[in-house]
Structure formats: C-alpha cells, structure tokens
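Model the whole thing, not chain by chain.
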Amino acid sequence: MAQLATVGGLAAVSRLYRTKPWGYGDQPEFINAAALLDTALGPRELLNALQQIETRLGRRPTHRWGPRVIDLDILYYADVRINEPDLIIPHPRLLERRFALVPLADIDPRYRDAAARLGYSAQSGECTALMFDESDQLIGRVRRLVAAFEETDLVRLRVSEEGDDAIELRRAPRGTNLAGPPDAERAIAPGQAREPAALEVIKANLVGIVHLNKPVPVPGARLEDDRELAYVEALGIRNPVNSRGSGRLVAVLVSDGEAVEYGQPLFEIERV
Amino acid sequence: MFRKVLIANRGEIALRINRACQELGVLTVAIHSEADRNSLHVRQANEAFCVGPGPVGHSYLNIPNIISTALITGADAIHPGYGFLAENARFAEICSDHGLVFIGPRPEVIATMGDKATAKRVMKEAGVPTTPGTGILETAREAADAAEKIGYPVILKATAGGGGKGMREVGSADQMERAFAAAQTEADISFKDGRLYMEKLIAHPRHIEVQVLADAFGEVVHLGERDCSVQKPSHQKMIEEAPAPNLAERTRKALHETAVRAARAVGYTNAGTLEFLVSDKHAYFMEMNTRIQVEHPVTEMVYGIDLVKEQIRVAAGEALGYAQADLRAGGHAIECRLNAEDARRNFSPAAGTLTDVVFPGGPGIRVDTHVYSGLEIPPFYDSMLAKIIAFADTREAAIARMERALRETVIEGVTTTIGPCLAILATRAFRAGTYDIDLLPALLQESPAA
C-alpha cells in the first residue's frame, strides 16, 4: 500500500482477505486486497508503474509476505474500456473472481450485489474468501481510516460508533523532520494513552506572496481554534492560512511580503 | 531582450533553455515538482520555485502556480520547452492576459495546428500536399465507408493527437469496428478528446520534417530537414539525423519550399516543425509542431545556429537579421535518444536510481542530459535520460563517431536504449541510408532483445 501511494492518492483500501489457493492445495494461502487509487497516470502509465512496483517488491524476498510474488492488477479505471493484448480494462474475469470481487465490494458498493451473486458468504464451505477474525477486521478498519485520513489536511480525526470504542487518529504535518513514527503508526488503538504534544508545520499550498495578519503573530502566542495567521496572495486572490486548531505558536518561518513556493513551511505550532 | 525568463519544464530541455538564457545574459526561474527537488535544472537556474507534488497535473501542468511564480519573480516571458504546456493555446493566452510573453507562436496558430484535422484542411487550402483522408468521423460505420473510398490500408488518428497515441492502422473492413473503438478510447484518455479522422496508410514511408524559423516582421526561413524515420512501433522517435540521406534534390527542395509556404500561410512566428511522410517522390504534410523539438540539436549542428536562442530573440521582438540566402548547412549530425526503457518489454519505462553514469566526450560529440550518478528517476515523467549527438564532415564519419560515443556511455541502475540504438546503427539499411519507418519494428521482430 505504501508503494501504491507513490503512484497516486489512496482513496480507500479494503480489508485483507485470506484466500485458499485453487488447484494445487500445497501452495500457501494468498492474501487479497483492493485499493481505490486517485492517480494522474493514464491506464498504460499506471500499468507500467504497477509492474515496476511488482519488480521492486518481487526482487527482494520481503520480511512480511515471505518469498511470495506480488500480483497487482487493474480491476477498472474510471469508466475506461481498453481491449489490447497486454491490457484489458475492466479486468475481463473480474466478475468471476471471488478473491478480487470480495475485497472490491468493501470499497466500492457497486460490486456488492455481484459479490453476493457469487455466493459469497463467510460461512459457506466452498467459499474461498475468508474474512480475518475480529481483531484483523479492526486492523482493516483502522487501515481504511488511516488511508482516508491521509487524503485530508485534518490534524485529528475521532470516530466513534455506538457500542464501539473510539478510534482517534492524529498527525504531525508531513515533511517535518521531527523524529517520530510515520503517520500510519500514529493510529491509536482504543484505550491507549494519549499522545504527547506534537509539533505541526503549516505549509504553503500554492505559490504566491505571504502576508502576515496584523497584529503579526509572535512565537509563544496561544492560538485559539482555527485562527487565520496569514494569507498567500496569488493571481490577485487571498488564500487564507489558518492555524488548523488551537495550540502554541512556536515559530514564524517567513517574513511579511516574502515570496513562497508550494510546500514551503510557514509556521510551527505545538499542539497541546 | 527579456530581463528574466521562467522555464516551464524539467529535464534536459529545461537545462537547454537555461543555457541559452545564461549566454544571452537573461536571468532564469526554474519551476519544479517535489519529486524533482534534486534536479539539475533547479540548481542551474538563477531562482527555483516548487509548484506542486510529483504528478504532472499538480506541478508541471499547474497553470495558476506557474503563472503566479512568473508574476512574483518578475519574469517577462515563459519558455514552455516541449511537452507539458508547449502546445496549449489556452496557456499561451493566459500568459498574455498576465502580461507575460509566451515564447512560441500566437495562441490562434497553436490552436489551429494543434487540431490535426483543422491543420490538414488549412494546409490543403495553402496548396500543401496532404495525405488522402477524411475530416472528423463520427462512427465506425462512417469510417468503414470512407475507407472503402480511400482504399485499405488506412490509419485512424486522433485529431487532438500526438506522440503516437490514439492511432490505429486498419488493414481491412473487418478490423474497423474494433480499431475505431480502441483509437477513440485511447484518444479520449490521452487528450480528453476522442474525435478521430482517417488517412490513407502510405506504405514504407520516411518521416522527414523541416525546421522553420519566423520573426514578427514576416521573415520566414527554413533550416533544412531532419530524417526521423527510426521510430518505435508506437511512432516515438529513437534516432534522428540531418540532412536526410539519399533524398532526391528535387524532393528536398520541394519540402523546404513547401514548409516555408505553409508557415507563411498561417502567419507563423518563432520556431516550428512541419512533419511530412515521404514515399518515393511524393511528400505529404502530416502535422506541424508549434514548439522546439527534442531532435532540434541535429539541425543546430549542421547550421551552426542556436535555435533556442533564436526562439528567445524572436519572442523578444527582434528581427531574425538574416534571410534564406545567408544560411548554409554543412556536415552531418545524428542524435540517439537514450531512454530508461526496456526494449524487450515493449519499451516500457523503467524507474530506479542511476548507480553509475559516464557520458561520452571528445571531438564532435554533444550530450544534452539532466541525469547524473545517484539521481533517482521518479515514476511520473518521460523516460528520456539523455540525447547523444554526433557531428562530423560526412554521414559515414558521424555514424562511426556515434558508435564510439555509445560504447563510451555507461548508465547503470536502469535498462536503457543504448543497446537498441547500437543495433539500429549496425543494420545495413541504416548504414546505407535507405531505411524507412519500418526499420525498427522489423528489427524488433527479428531479435526482440535488439
């Protein structure tokens, strides 16, 4: 999934499924999953990128999956239809392949009926797709939340459903050189202790001239809620830069009237 | 002359434009994606701005951030290079709306030439010979009817096309429906415009193109032709040379005159290229590229003219200062494109880190590249790593020089097209200068590993 995230944004990731091999029983079990990718690559470029990932992962026996070869398929690509010797989209056997359809139904409700038609059920004896046990399901759920969280600029996300423990995700902003676990490992399981204060860097998301709000925010200042700290002027439009929540302003990294590039750090904020 | 130029591109062409600017005493602003932070063009420009993340839609095609960068850095002009926004008429228009000079022809000319079916009609009206063909076809049925009249084999092409995308050869009526659907889909994906037209497929043609240069005062000159017949099955060029070998003088002269006439007919300014298919003594207009081309160095070598500098001078409102009679070509130049591609896997691009890179040198060798040892090739962009250009007095000496240069070249870490280029140079047809666009596809059939 980390490799996939290099070719586009992971919009959704299914649970992981254990699939018994067809035919030869002495093969190890397969693990199947589906991901929804938001990518700027065309279908052929995507195929090439996936093949490169396969090569990259296949060359070294990986610690996690053992010596297994990874197989990445494009199941569908928006509404595109391609029928060429080396690339057929949508995947021609998609509707017959339980191990593809079942994870897909997880992330795309349009395929739930088709999955049901194949007689998919966790109890069925001939069913080859097996759901992980309860704890694995939870991991799957956290995974999907993390993937969705990655897509946003949110700093904190708390999800609670009736009868369930709450799941809370937090992050320090990307690109900060702070030591610490990557975002994905920041997921906090229910009942776990709260995180210590994190430093967040607010970055410019476009190219323009930064104007600090008056009175100019000074390091040490307490920030309440979503306070506007500055705006980036680009093509005559004011694009506000907010504190994205409360905290303590640690540093102002730009000066008033400075030209800033995409991704340039503007403010450092300590979340309490 | 401009004070400062923004270079809206990456890779070797961004370096090429930066070099021209530096020599002209013009300051430069590089733009780059987050994935290209360690690129040479970022280091060599006077200023550099990150305009977005790796995928091109968010960075090198991010018009608001590119224009904003030009405005806040005080650039006077934008050089688009090739690819990305180079043939985007809307972008050229937006530049002018913001008081920035787009280094290229006027937006209307880009739009006319960018729509291949329109370009063909305009050229036909200007008396330029075009391949027998059709206007926009709505359905496979209509295409099949047209093909009966023109006569098989035919080729379906995307009107918004380029780079070999949305093209399908059709040998007989029973293949039409499938080919039409495939070409339409590919065109739709690649250009967001699925409209197709049809041309008669010319058997065993050569791809010969003519470089033109025009200023704002109506002076139009040509800088001879380039033979770009060594193409992958996807129609992407691999090896180009100037002048075209074994071309009848009458045909050569006709091509040059036709190109100048065509450029005049559309009121062309700046550098441009007219592509022709040449079969026997017949030359048919294919399309016009309204930008600098990848293979421009071979023309620079034989004419001793810096095309990128000329682009900048003309865009700044200077007159060319010379006429056709003042131009003289001499010697022979060949260019090989070294791509991070695997010829055995249908030239699929290979990403990775370059572990060891050594480029050739010595007399008559020019290397245009942006790569170096340790560079990680991001997966988002074109796979070209370098262009090797060999120049000598004669074609024979240029081939020997190119072979020597390719053998000196080391690129470790990714699969490259060095091997395939050497294999092509070694063929009897290339050495004799009697090849056509079927050379490389046929070679791949014989020995897929080339």
